[in-house]
C-alpha cells in the first residue's frame, strides 16, 4: 500500500474511534474538518519512510506512530490559529477551525486530537509492548515541555525569543519524533535517527519562514507576513531569502549525510530530497532545486 493511503486509512480509523457512538455532532464535524483533506502529510510520510528504510517489520506500529504524529500536528494547527495566538482566518485554503466552528469547539477539537493521538499509540501495546512504550515516550517529549510543541508555543509569550530554541521546539521536535518513531516502530535504535529529524525540521522551518515573507497567500492556504506582524523570529528575515535558501540547501545535504546505515538508505535519501520541494513557493522551489 502507498504510504499516503496508509496514513489516510489510519487517520480515518482514529477519527471513527473519536466520533463513534454519542459524540456531539458539531465536535465530530469539527474533527473531520480539521483532519481532511489534509496537507502534504510531511511528518507521517517521513515516519513511514524511515520505518520502510529500517525494514518495516511491524507496519501496524509504524502506522500508529505516523498517524499519531499527524493528529498532534493537526491539533497544534487548530490551537495555533486561535485568536489568543495567531488569530489566523484560514488554514489549508479554507476557514480555520475556530472561524468555521467557533472558539470553544476549536479548543475542544484540538484537545480531542491530542487524546486520540495517545490512544492510537496505546493500542500498539497489544502488538509490541516494548516498542509501543518507547513510541509513547518519544512522541510525548516532542509535544510537551521542556522542548516540545507546547514549549515552542510558550516561547511566544516571553519577552525575548531565542530563534534556534524556538524553531527547534515548535517545528523541529515533531520532525525528530517522526524519524525516531519510524525507526523504533521497525525495531531500530531510535536515538541515531534524531539528527536527521533535527536537520529536516530546521529546513522545513526555514522554508516556512521564506513562505511567510514571499509566498502567495492563495497558494499557501493561509495568511503571510504573520511573523513580521507578531514580532516573531524569522530566518528568512534575518538571513535574507537568498541566505535562507543557501542554509536550506546545506541542511538537506546534512540530512542526507546523517542517514544511518540501513537496508533502505538510498530510497530514503531520495525521499528526503524530493519531498523538500513542496515546502517552498513554486517560483522559488525551481531555483532551490
Summarize the model shown.
The chain has 15 helices and two strands. It is mainly alpha-helical.
What proportion of the residues is helical, as a percent range?
over 70%
Distance between the termini: 29 Å
Number of strands: 2
Low-confidence region ranges: none
Q: What multimeric state do the chains show?
A: single chain
Count of helical regions: 15
> Which sheet architecture does the biggest sheet show?
2 strands, antiparallel
Work out the radius of gyration. 18 Å
CATH topology: Farnesyl Diphosphate Synthase
Order of SSEs:
HHHHEEHHHHHHHHHHH
Q: Pairing-aware structural class of the strands and helices?
A: mainly alpha
Strand order of the largest sheet: 1-2
The number of domains? 1
- Specify the CATH class: Mainly Alpha
Report the portion of residues in β strands.
under 5%
Shape: globular
Instruction: Write the CATH homologous superfamily.
Output: Farnesyl Diphosphate Synthase
Topology:
Layout: H1 3-19, H2 25-35, H3 42-53, H4 59-81, E1 90-91, E2 94-95, H5 97-101, H6 103-122, H7 129-143, H8 149-155, H9 163-185, H10 194-214, H11 217-220, H12 226-230, H13 235-258, H14 265-275, H15 282-288
Antiparallel strand pairs: 1-2
Amino acid at each position: 500500500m502507498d504510504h499516503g493511503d496508509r496514513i489516510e486509512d489510519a487517520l480515518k480509523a482514529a477519527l471513527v474511534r473519536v466520533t463513534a457512538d454519542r459524540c456531539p455532532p458539531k465536535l465530530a464535524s469539527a474533527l473531520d474538518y480539521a483532519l481532511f483533506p489534509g496537507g502534504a502529510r510531511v511528518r507521517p510520510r517521513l515516519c513511514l519512510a524511515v520505518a520502510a528504510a529500517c525494514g518495516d517489520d511491524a507496519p501496524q506500529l509504524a502506522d500508529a506512530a505516523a498517524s499519531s504524529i499527524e493528529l498532534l500536528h493537526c491539533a497544534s494547527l487548530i490551537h495555533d490559529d486561535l485568536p489568543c495566538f495567531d488569530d489566523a482566518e484560514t488554514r489549508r485554503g479554507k476557514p480555520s477551525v475556530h472561524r468555521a466552528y467557533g472558539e470553544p469547539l476549536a479548543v475542544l477539537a484540538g484537545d480531542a486530537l491530542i487524546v486520540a493521538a495517545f490512544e492510537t499509540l496505546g493500542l500498539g501495546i497489544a502488538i509490541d509492548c516494548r516498542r509501543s512504550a518507547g513510541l509513547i515516550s518519544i512522541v510525548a517529549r516532542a509535544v510537551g515541555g521542556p522542548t516540545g510543541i507546547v514549549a515552542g508555543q510558550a516561547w511566544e509569550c516571553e519577552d525575548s525569543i531565542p530563534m534556534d530554541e524556538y524553531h527547534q521546539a515548535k517545528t523541529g521536535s515533531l520532525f525528530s519524533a517522526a524519524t525516531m518513531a519510524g525507526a523504533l516502530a521497525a525495531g531500530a535504535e531510535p536515538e541515531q535517527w534524531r539528527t536527521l529529524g533535527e536537520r529536516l525540521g530546521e529546513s522545513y522551518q526555514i522554508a516556512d519562514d521564506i513562505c511567510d515573507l514571499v509566498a502567495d497567500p492563495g497558494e499557501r492556504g493561509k495568511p503571510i507576513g504573520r511573523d513580521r506582524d507578531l514580532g516573531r523570529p524569522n530566518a528568512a528575515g534575518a538571513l535574507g531569502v537568498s541566505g535562507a535558501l543557501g542554509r536550506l540547501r546545506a541542511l538537506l545535504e546534512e540530512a542526507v549525510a546523517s542517514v544511518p546505515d540501513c537496508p533502505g538508505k538510498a530510497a530514503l535519501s531520495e525521499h528526503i530530497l524530493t519531498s523538500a520541494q513542496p515546502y517552498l513557493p513554486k517560483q522559488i522551489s525551481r531555483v532551490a532545486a
